[in-house]
Amino acid sequence: MRQLRWVLLGALALTGMACRAAPAPQPQDKPSPVPAKKPDVFTVGVWQPAAGLRQAPIWPGPAPDGTLRPQGPETIQTYDDPPATGGTSQAVLNVAIPTMTIIPAKGRTTGTAVIVFPGGGFQKVFMGLEGTEICDWLVAKGITCIVSKYRAPGGNDYWDDNLKRHITPKIMRALQDAQRTIRLVRSKAGELGIDPHKIGVIGFSAGGYLVAQTSNILTPAYKPVDAIDQVSSRPDFAVALYPGHICRDDGKTFDPTLPISKTAPPTFIAQSWDDPVDPICNSLMYAAALDKAGVSTEIHLFAHGGHAFGLRKKDQPVGVWPTLVEAWLKQLGML
To answer: pLDDT per residue over 48-59, tens digit each?
Structure first.
């Protein structure tokens, strides 16, 4: 039975706030000083997870089809991020050797695993905000978490600053990496202590697009390299947060390269109406297409939240999305 729930949060809260006028500033009031933003630091080297965690290449040799174009060595971008632990977060540029980082569940294990696809516009990969931070939440719920560091830049549809338009490469290398990661995790189910039928994906922004692709494109996007490529790449459930790249031409057309399959897994979608980066049409059009195909789909749209809210903004309505995901996973028997 198809399920499509629409939840719009936040508008009522604004009504009450409008009734209370803010006190007028007094002459002696002085604006609080705004701390200067530290410049980003770029360090050449391979991104490393926290001590004790295991990061492994997903391909037995060189990744198929290499990179979109010749590029420099992998580089870590460290930037000011006050809400993050330590006040900074990291993104990775020039990923040529895709990896997965395994973070075991804490306490009671559910047998469920989730592969995280961070965002970054297919130009970089935000390993902190939309990667390891998400795992901190999941592993505390007894879920084994795997962070995908897929190839970028140009691993999939991206915005070209020079040409001022979107470019869809003929070879979707990020999709290759995403499919391979799902297969690899499923092939290691016994080793990881997880159920091979309880493997899901969660993605943010560009990573949300990878969620849509892996949910609907089951034909391998690359030539098989070993026996692992005989394993299914279909996720058992999918969560897409503020997905992008799905609606094109200012919302007039649906991505022509994304087929919608009736075999796509149950899907949870969340986004804010005021997202300034990925228009709300991405979530609306994708949810409608899944529902039309008969796929169980749950969507939550928030009045406010902007883009890349991740696990931030816990004091705002948009901050309840993890609780909603947990309830949804329990309903599916995954948690």
So the answer is: 999 999 999 999
Residues 284-327 have pLDDT tens digits of 999 999 999 999 999 999 999 999 999 999 999 999 999 999 99
Neighbouring residues of 17: CB distance < 8 A, sequence distance ≥ 6: none
User: Are the C-beta atoms of residues 241 and 270 closer than 8 Å to each other?
Assistant: yes
How far is Cα 298 from Cα 156, in angstroms, rounded to an integer?
26
Q: In 3D, which of 123, 143, 136 has the Cα closest to residue 198? A: 143
Instruction: Give the span between the Cα atoms of 113 and 109, in whole angstroms.
Output: 10
CA angle, 168 then 222 then 171, to 5°? 15
84-104 burial code (b ≥16 CB/10 A, e <16): beeeebbbbbbbbebbbbbbb
Residue 262, CB half-sphere, CA atoms under 13 Å: how many? 5
Q: Which of 80-84, 114-118, 304-308 has the lowest mean pLDDT?
A: 80-84
